[in-house]
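Can anyone check this?
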Amino acid sequence: MKLTRTHSTLCAKSLSENSEGSCFRTGSKRHRSGFTLAEVLAALALMAIVIPVTVQGIQVGSRAGQVGARKAVAARIADRVMNELEVTGQLLSGAQGGSIQEGDREFKWSMQTQSWSEGNLNVVTVGVDFEVQGQEYNVRLSTLVDPTATTAATSTTGTETPQ
């Protein structure tokens, strides 16, 4: 085995010299790159926590978007039904119901008339039920109607409640 002196380092013939002139063993542990088992397990544990939380967040966001969009459609349908019932003179005719197809979705509506505690007025409520990801929701639109007059009062409220 022949020894040579380079940069105050002894290199054996079995050692190789890199471009900087320093000696190293090929395949030595100092120059291997990679992750330890502990690092891999820590990364897997972190992913096991983060991924389900992220998926749940995406589902909640998706549901909120769908509920908002369908709530707007349901409110429009309730307003349209109430206007049609008023124009046709059926606004004070008691309870009614039906369904309306909007695109590929079906919205069920119902109308109820009740007397109001103040004066000689009636409360007319149109409710529209819809489903988002297997859960039922509804929108209610109410107005006050004077049965002796020909037009409805413009006191209208809208609410949305999950069932």
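Reply from J.R.: I decoded it. The helical segments are 37-87.
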